[in-house]
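Page 42, continued from yesterday. The earlier attempt failed because a stray header line got pasted into the input along with the sequence. Redoing it now with the clean sequence only.
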Amino acid sequence: MSEITTTTSAARRHGGRQLYDELRLQILTLRLKPGTPLDEVSLAAQFGVSRSPVRDALARLVSEGLVTILANRTALVTPFEINEFPKYIAAIDLTQRAVTRLAALNRSEADLQRICQANIDYIQALDSGNFQNMSELNKAFHMQIARAGRNAYLTHAYEKLLGEGQRLLHLHFDFIMSTQSHSTPHQDHERIIQALTRRDPEAAEAAASEHTLLFRDRFLAFMKQNMTRSISVQ
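This time it went through. Structure tokens are written below.
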């Protein structure tokens, strides 16, 4: 099993919460690779906690789709196979279109303010070069949109898909930032915000789909450029 790095003694002081935060961070940033086994006993020893908070942390990660429990009760970081990428794109495209369309129909002025502020926070992280914050704040931006749509079932499903997308983002962050394209990461959310501001559901759905396809195209371009390299996502 890959070693889990406990960065501070706070992991022991705060028990399950710190364990959850550290595992989630290492999964999203690919320090824990997809398919890595997660042993309760080893994790409890490393973090200085009992097995109960370990089980709680793993259960929460399972609910987010980041950890999978096999039939033999083995826990592992949820695998991701490259040949499943088209299915992922189909799922996130449909869900992102739906939540963004609903947000255009149902958002309040307070919702719009939160969405715009989330985008400002995202751009600031982008400018600072803090990829971890960029990933989290990009997710926060899209979750604000989902909440503005006021459909809890779609919001829950969308959050799991965004979590998977964070792992894929970390795989090719450097490529995104170094590639010059017509649309820069700073502009990625602009059409969505404009459509939400106008309360235009058709334009909001179209902008959301364009955003998904931009992510797809960037990732496929990265894969094409790195085909001769060893890229482990499973």
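Notes: The two ends are 14 Å apart (CA to CA).
Reminder to self: strip header lines before submitting.
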